[in-house]
Write a structure and sequence with these properties.
mainly alpha; Amino acid/polyamine transporter I; 19 helices; about 0% strand; globular; transmembrane; membrane; AminoAcid_Transporter; transmembrane helix
Length: about 450
């Protein structure tokens, strides 16, 4: 009986994820398409300054790690399926938790899956397929992976572990060879090379925003914390190990690109619309072998990232349904696999809609902006939880100043994003307005049901 309790949570989730599995969840989702094309956006946002671009990657990773440390305290003390939904509902109000879930459902989750699938297919077949063909292939890939993940968390985690190992090997080879064989001396000063029409602080803020999308996904480990073995120890370790390693990896990968490609070549490639600088750099370094190596790395990286982005979100919708602010069907687990299958079905449909109607760059900003808002609120839940639940055992406790440093940085980024990209910012804020309407609709339904039961 005790062994069974260790394998299945009180809500029926299967505990199949160990420490390496937790690292694979974070690394598998985070190290995806972003590492291959977002460096181009970061460079453009900071006026083609390679020094500023690397600074943005370091700051983006540092901010993610600070946020991750806060999430580690919450996840270790309260290992609940749905992560943010539970934290925000308990710390502030069920409306706030529900709004996070609605924004994930309406924007972040489908936009992430759509962006990664489009980037993967474009990287593989961009020169031979039309935009329509790319979108059709992206949809087929999303549907196939969603079906696979419906067969249980064990299979999902196995695929995540394999893709994690498979993409790290060629990525590390590229970085090592580039560091020693690259013969360009990049200008790492913070001087702007091309005017972008904004001030330096605003440029850096946009560059950090773009880099943050590449780090996006580390919060997903808290969504599956109820499916982790010994989350009190493994969840904080997984977050710290993953985000530290990923920051180093991203910074070195972009530095290697600058070591191989002169800035004038990079500028010309970006002007021609070629965002995949890593592919070009590796081909210049190793010829056809480099093309094969980077293609393999890209396929495994994006595939694992897409798998993680499809696998974890239905747990959010499950938590929403358990809070009774989402249709009941989302809160039902398949008795054989312990998976919220209905959530996968609807999530897939939403991702298909985003594939059809959005560009890759729009998807990037949409995901980053909504994540900033709710990640900040979740981090603010740390001191609130300490006051509301002072007696709860906290296996990991984050240093309090980290909470407020993270919050200050996030508020600055949110303000600059609204000021510089009002279109996508207001789309994200519009989703929150829709979320308020949805929440009070379910509140109305609950009151109606209670009134009916009383009468």
């Amino acid at each position: 009986m005790e062994e069974k309790e260790n394998q299945v949570s009180e809500n029926g989730f299967r505990k199949e994820i160990g420490l390496f599995g937790g690292i694979s969840v974070i690394g598998g989702i985070v190290i995806g398409s972003g590492i291959f094309y977002l460096g181009s956006y970061v460079l453009q946002y900071v006026g083609m300054s390679e020094g500023l671009a690397l600074l943005c990657w370091i700051i983006g990773g540092f901010l993610s790690l600070l946020g991750g440390l806060c999430y580690a305290e919450l996840g270790a003390a309260f290992p609940k399926a749905g992560g943010n939904i539970y934290y925000l509902s308990e710390a502030f109000h069920p409306l706030i938790g529900s709004l996070d879930g609605y924004s994930l459902f309406l924007i972040s989750d489908p936009a992430s899956s759509a962006a990664i699938s489009i980037a993967l297919i474009t990287a593989l077949f961009g020169n031979t397929m039309s935009d329509m063909q790319i979108k059709i292939a992206s949809i087929i890939l999303i549907v196939a992976l969603s079906i696979y993940n419906c067969f249980g968390v064990k299979l999902s985690n196995i695929l995540q572990n394999i893709s994690m190992a498979a993409k790290l090997i060629p990525l590390i080879i590229i970085i090592v060879l580039g560091l020693f064989m690259g013969n360009v001396q990049p200008d790492l000063s913070l001087a702007v090379k091309e005017a972008t029409g904004g001030n330096t602080i605003g440029m850096i803020a946009l560059g950090i925003m773009a880099s943050l999308w590449a780090y996006e996904g580390w919060t997903n480990i808290n969504l599956v914390s109820e499916e982790m073995k010994n989350p009190q120890k493994n969840l904080p370790r997984a977050i710290i190990i993953s985000l530290t390693g990923i920051t180093l990896l991203y910074t070195l990968f972009n530095f290697v690109i600058y070591r191989i490609l002169p800035l004038d070549v990079i500028t010309k490639e970006l002007a021609d619309g070629n965002l995949y600088l890593g592919t070009l750099a590796t081909k210049n370094l190793l010829g056809n072998l480099g093309s094969i190596l980077v293609t393999l790395c890209m396929v495994f990286a994006m595939f694992g990232s897409l798998n993680g982005c499809l696998w974890t979100p239905p747990r959010t919708y499950y938590a929403l349904a358990q809070e009774k602010h989402w249709p009941k069907a989302f809160g039902k687990l398949n008795p054989k696999t312990g998976v919220p299958v209905f959530g996968f079905v609807i999530e897939t449909i939403m991702a298909i809609i985003f594939v059809c109607f959005n560009t890759l760059q729009d998807l990037t900003i949409l995901v980053a902006f909504t994540s900033l808002i709710f990640n900040s609120l979740t981090v603010l839940a740390v001191p609130v939880f300490r006051k509301k639940f002072p007696d709860v055992h906290r296996p990991y406790r984050v240093w309090t100043p980290i909470v407020y440093i993270y919050l200050a940085a996030e508020i600055i980024l949110i303000a600059y994003t609204i000021a510089t990209d009002m279109r996508n910012s207001f789309i994200s804020l519009g989703a929150l307005v829709i979320g308020v309407i949805i929440y009070y609709f379910f509140e109305w339904k609950l009151k109606k049901e209670k009134t009916k039961d009383v009468s």
